[in-house]
Amino acid sequence: MEKASDVSKKVTLLVTTAASFLTPFMGSSINIALPSIGREFSMSAVLLGWVAYSFLLAAATVLVPIGKVADIWGRKRVFSIGLVVYTLSSFFCAIAVSSYSLISFRLLQGVGGAMIFGPSIAILTSVFPAGERGRALGINVASVYLGLSAGPFLGGFLTEHFGWRSIFLINVPLGVTILILMLWKIKAEWAEASDEHFDFRGAFLYMAALSALMYGFSSLTRTLGVWLVVLGLVLIIIFAFRERKVKNPLLDITLFRHNTIFVFSNLAALINYSATFAVSFLLSLYLQYIKGLSPLHAGVILVAQPVVQAIFSPFAGRFSDRMEPRIVASTGMSLTAFGLGLLLLLNNQASILFIVVVLFILGLGFALFSSPNTNAIMSSVEQQFYGVASGTLATMRITGQMLSMGIVMLIFALHIGDVPITPEQYPSFMGSMHSALIILSLLCFGGIFASLARGKIR
């Protein structure tokens, strides 16, 4: 096995950064296309939410197991297989014939996505030393935001001119190109835990717990949802006790018991994504249903936020190499909370300029938070835990995104019900959006204290 130092840093950064573009591009594109998908398949507001939620559900449940597999079997190998799964499932989504087949293929796409963005941060952390890591992670995060930036505009353009299926098809040549570059240019492999055994029982417990918890949370309006949440919590407790006694645990619980920086940085990430992910989903529906904009015009407006993120993320990463990541990230969380509070002023007459200004504030807040927080997490663990730490961080991100969507879907179910969003439902939609934004704003405000509580890294 070659050492990380033998690998061209630039090529590794290029491949992982290009791959990091794929899944956020897909997610932000889909948000713009949801009204068009809903019309074709006559989907309710709740079922539309499942088009986004299914990807997150699958990704969240496999991320930590995938991180451990990557540490044992090889990060490059898992990353490459993930590209294959993601690319194939994108093609299947493009030819889906019903809402349920589309959601099923989105589940498969979520597994492929987890296999890509789980190991990618660990690969970067293995290649770049501590003094250069913040800049590299900042560029990687910028690529995520570039995907988020291109998604609304390009997704709106494709949906308007070629239909929503073209959004999935465009991922196919992108995935193939990145895979070829990965296999051709990167010869090294990273498997620092190759002498360990994979904890299959722990993986089963973990995936069952998270699946029950997340699916149950999205269905809390039904008795089954409540019981699934209870089952998920019980299974998580059993999993945590079991992992303390296993020789090669799926998730080293000591990372959470004795590493304050790791714990609170992950908690801050969970809260940040829980508070923010559903905003683009809500604004996409608001701009197209309430403001009557086309998918392309809505995409042009929504692009303001991720463009700001893409511009400022590398600078935020560099700042976190020179000063305490805690300060930079907490400042970002505060700006985000302020931006979410401003969105509570939205009504039928809100100006487009106001929305763009708020998106600018949110974008700056996200940029200042994300890469310094990632730097803090990856710098707080030893090298043999990079894959698990990367998978844990990605799980916090995806679980936060699921919670964010789960909050919105639960509120939709209570306010609107299982019906399509028609003009008669617009007042109910606005009420749902304001209720969700109140919860998300309060959540983000609480996240400021979690970010500050992590302590100093250096």
Question: Your description of this structure?
Answer:
With 458 residues, the protein is mainly α. The protein has two domains: 4-198 and 248-452, Growth Hormone, Chain: A, CATH 1.20.1250.20; 199-247. It contains 17 helices and no strands. Helix 11 packs antiparallel against helix 17 (426-452). The two termini are 32 Å apart. Residues 1-7 have low confidence and may be disordered.
Indicate the radius of gyration in whole angstroms.
Answer: 21 Å
CATH architecture of the largest domain, by name, is Up-down Bundle
CATH homologous superfamily of the largest domain, by name? MFS general substrate transporter like domains
* Topology, number of strands: 0
Q: Say what the CATH topology of the largest domain is.
A: Growth Hormone, Chain: A
Q: What portion of the residues fall into strands of 2 or more residues?
A: under 5%
| Poorly predicted segments | 1-7
Number of domains: 2
Work out the helicity level: over 70%
| Average pLDDT | 83
The topology string of helices and strands comes to HHHHHHHHHHHHHHHHH
The biggest beta sheet, please? none
Q: Outline, from the CA principal axes?
A: globular
CATH class of the largest domain: Mainly Alpha
Structural class determined from secondary elements: mainly alpha
End-to-end separation: 32 Å
How many H/I helical runs? Answer: 17
List the helices and strands and how they pair.
Blueprint: H1 9-41, H2 45-73, H3 75-94, H4 99-127, H5 130-162, H6 165-169, H7 171-185, H8 200-218, H9 223-243, H10 254-257, H11 260-290, H12 295-302, H13 304-322, H14 325-343, H15 352-379, H16 386-415, H17 426-452
Helix pairs in contact: 1-2, 1-4, 1-5, 1-7, 1-11, 2-3, 2-4, 2-8, 2-16, 3-4, 3-7, 4-16, 5-12, 5-13, 5-15, 8-9, 11-12, 11-15, 11-16, 11-17, 13-15, 14-15, 14-17, 16-17
